[in-house]
Amino acid sequence: MQTKPEHETAKRHETVDANVRGVVRWGIGVFALLASGLLVSVVVFRYFVTHQGLGPPASPFQNVRALPPAPLLQVAPAADLSHYLNQETETLDTYGWVDQNAGIVRIPIDRAMELLLQKGFPVESHPAARQKAAAPSTQPSGMPANDENSPRRGTETKQTNPTGRGK
Fold it and tell me: SS3 for 143?
């Protein structure tokens, strides 16, 4: 077996002591930080106490419960729904002004449906005519298109007499 030299086996403790000066400086620094933080807190607290009043203390008899902003909860939802439906039914079934200055009125829905049946619904143009109108023209600009569905074929136009009387 190998044996260690005598100077290595005899020493079984630290040969260098802790730096006492460094440990004391560190402790003093921590204490100084704590003390300065406490001092700053006291100064700030006293500043706010003198410059910002808290107001009078709340009275126990004062209504301290503040209501939230609208919409509030419904106390009687069935009654609210009934009231709402009555208002809407009245709006649909009566005459009235929507905007009197603009001359816009409302009429009952049944009367509006009767008027639409009498006058007729708006009719769209024939689908083929819409497709040809959407297609680019091969004619030079300013020239009318000359096709079968065009109201102008050539230079002739048919004039009708709206009164139905003779020429």
Answer: coil
Strands (E) across the chain are located at 96-99, 104-106
The CA distance from 155 to 167, in Å, is 21
At 18, list the tokens: 């802790």
Tens-place pLDDT, residues 21-52: 999 999 999 999 999 999 999 999 999 888 88
Can you give the pTM of this predicted structure?
A: 0.31
SS3 content of the chain, % helix, strand, coil (to 5): 45, 5, 50
| Among candidate residues 87, 105, 108, 86, the one with its CA nearest the CA of residue 96 | 105
Tens digit of each residue's pLDDT (9 = 90 or more) over 65-74:
677 787 778 8
